[in-house]
Amino acid sequence: xxxxxxxxxxxxxxxxxxxxxxxxxxxxxxxxxxxxxxxxxxxxxxxxxxxxxxxxxxxxxxxxxxxxxxxxxxxxxxxxxxxxxxxxxxxxxxxxxxxxxxxxxxxxxxxxxxxxxxxxxxxxxxxxxxxxxxxxxxxxxxxxxxxxxxxxxxxxxxxxxxxxxxxxxxxxxxxxxxxxxxxxxxxxxxxxxxxxxxxxxxxxxxxxxxxxxxxxxxxxxxxxxxxxxxxxxxxxxxxxxxxxxxxxxxxxxxxxxxxxxxxxxxxxxxxxxxxxxxxxxxxxxxxxxxxxxxxxxxxxxxxxxxxxxxxxxxxxxxxxxxxxxxxxxxxxxxxxxxxxxxxxxxxxxxxxxxxxxxxxxxxxxxxxxxxxxxxxxxxxxxxxxxxxxxx
Length: 391
Ligand SMILES: Cc1cc2nc3c(=O)[nH]c(=O)nc-3n(C[C@H](O)[C@H](O)[C@H](O)COP(=O)(O)OP(=O)(O)OC[C@H]3O[C@@H](n4cnc5c(N)ncnc54)[C@H](O)[C@@H]3O)c2cc1C
Known about the structure:
The chain is an alpha/beta fold. It has 3 domains: 1-71 and 215-221 and 353-391, no CATH class; 78-214, DNA Cyclobutane Dipyrimidine Photolyase, subunit A, domain 3, CATH 1.10.579.10; 230-351, HUPs (Rossmann fold, 3-Layer(aba) Sandwich), CATH 3.40.50. It contains 16 helices and 5 strands. β4, α13 (329-343) and β5 form a beta-alpha-beta unit. The longest helix is centred in the N-terminal third of the chain and has 36 residues, at 35-70. The chain is globular. The mean pLDDT is 95. The structure holds flavin-adenine dinucleotide. Flavin-adenine dinucleotide (FAD) binds at residues 9, 21-25, 28-29, 57-58, 60-61, 64, 126-127, 130-131, 134, 152, 156, 158-160, 163-164, 167-168, 171. Flavin-adenine dinucleotide (FAD) is lined by residues 9, 21-25, 28-29, 57-58, 60-61, 64, 126-127, 130-131, 134, 152, 156, 158-160, 163-164, 167-168, 171. Residues 199-222 are annotated as: Disordered.
């Protein structure tokens, strides 16, 4: 998280030995580790100057999350585009053959073919490999961006609606209009530590078809905890409530609902589903022991809607609290079910972490506006007073 990270994080020597980056993204994704914990640890061990780069990278995740909350239709547009592109594959044999060759590592492009296999086998790719893969997909192979984003989501253990969708749009020149990321042979050779040097890559970007950024909208209002006894419902979006909710809260029951298999239109990889469901099980166990209440996984063997309704009907309290569910597949899957509970007279409270509450208002436009606010926000969060970041 210090100087070595700052200098070497772009280099990917391969899956055998990858000491330059943390590989913690699946844990951040489900908040098994929080951004706050990681930043505090980085500052304690390395100090502000050396930890700057790591903190900024953590904040990219926060930025993408906050940006998508201000522009949630970018997620729903992605879902519609993805479904339309899958239909197009049914009709266009040439497109289908190119798409299948790309995801099966048969495109004949050095590096690209390896990364397709590494992703499907391990559920992880280094950031530089992700950028290069997406760029080759878009500009050399000229494949639709939504199918690439779907391929990543199907396999990544850290698959995230905000970071994935917006990173694909960033490479495509849709997030920062007109500014594409063009993969170059030399950069790939350097960043892959000499492992790959693909020839015949596209020499210029193209206008990638895709929806423009919509107008920014207000963040949804922040709910507060009820004054009385409540039940707690966990999803894959935040699985360490014991680190930010007081153990003395009066909690009647705890339950979890999984949604990992709803990430994509096609089958999600078994490994990715197993990682997420394992994380949910683990998060439930920790929450249960923190609050001294038994915690159950509702969707283990029954359909989500019936299991949630039966659980809600079994409660004495009329209040259900959830860590905030941001835009994405869990939101899409659970929102109609939560609305049904509300129609039945239950009160649903979605509460946000202070980290998101303090950072997200700065995530309406570009990353650099948020980056400038890092010292003052960390100060406000009592993580670092008078912090000076390098660069
Ligand atoms: C096309 C594309 C798709 C991506 N899809 C995802 C995704 O679905 N989920 C995801 O978590 N990240 C995604 N990323 C961002 C980034 O590649 C990964 O977060 C990072 O590679 C994870 O490896 P690490 O934990 O070793 O990162 P480290 O370098 O150790 O960074 C520490 C943490 O900071 C955050 N972070 C670092 N770089 C970025 C970044 N550029 N954007 C957002 N967060 C960052 C991650 O939470 C990461 O775990 C994507 C990037 C691209 C270019």
